[in-house]
Write a structure and sequence with these properties.
The chain is an alpha+beta fold. Helices cover 50% and strands 14% of the residues. Strands 1-2-3 form a three-stranded antiparallel sheet.
C-alpha cells in the first residue's frame, strides 16, 4: 500500500472573500472614471467641432470682406457646415452632430428680409451644435452673416 504524502494546496475561503472585496472596492472607484471618460471625450469633440465651425465662419467673413466674389454667402447657421468641406448637414449628422439656430435676441431669422439685413450689418449670431446620442451635449458657435 502506498501512502501519498503530498499536501494539497489551494485558497481558503477567507482569501477568496478578501480578493473579491478588494476587486469590489477597486471597481467602485474605477467605474465613474471610465464612464466619465466617455462624456469628457464627447465634450472635447463637441468643443473642437464648434471651434472649427466658428473659425471657418470667421475665415469666410474675412475672405468675403476683402473680395465679395470669393468665399460663401452665410444666411443661416447650417450654411457654415459647407465651409468645412463637409458638403451638407447630412455628413455632420452622420458624424453625430446637429445644428440649430441660436436662442435669444441673436437668433438668425428664417425670413429672407431679416437675413439680408443681418448680412448687411455683418452680425455675428450664436448657433447651437449638439450631439445626437445620449447624453445630449450642446455648445454654441458663432456664425457671421455676410452676403
Amino acid at each position: 500500500m502506498m501512502l501519498f504524502s503530498k499536501k494539497q494546496g489551494g485558497f481558503t475561503l477567507i482569501e477568496l472573500v478578501v480578493v473579491v472585496a478588494v476587486l469590489g472596492v477597486l471597481s467602485v472607484f474605477a467605474m465613474p472614471k471610465i464612464l466619465g471618460t466617455i462624456t469628457d471625450a464627447r465634450i472635447a469633440a463637441l468643443t473642437g467641432m464648434a471651434g472649427a465651425l466658428t473659425a471657418a465662419s470667421t475665415h469666410n467673413y474675412m475672405i468675403r470682406g476683402a473680395d465679395s466674389s470669393k468665399g460663401r454667402e452665410i444666411l443661416k447657421c447650417t450654411d457654415v457646415v459647407e465651409l468645412l468641406h463637409l458638403g451638407s448637414t447630412a455628413i455632420l449628422t452622420a458624424d453625430g452632430y446637429t445644428i440649430t439656430e441660436g436662442s435669444g435676441s441673436d437668433v438668425m431669422s428664417t425670413t429672407i428680409d431679416t437675413l439680408v439685413t443681418l448680412s448687411n450689418l455683418d452680425t455675428a449670431v450664436d448657433c447651437n451644435l449638439s450631439t445626437i446620442s445620449e447624453p445630449v451635449k450642446t455648445m454654441k458657435f458663432s456664425a457671421i452673416g455676410i452676403n
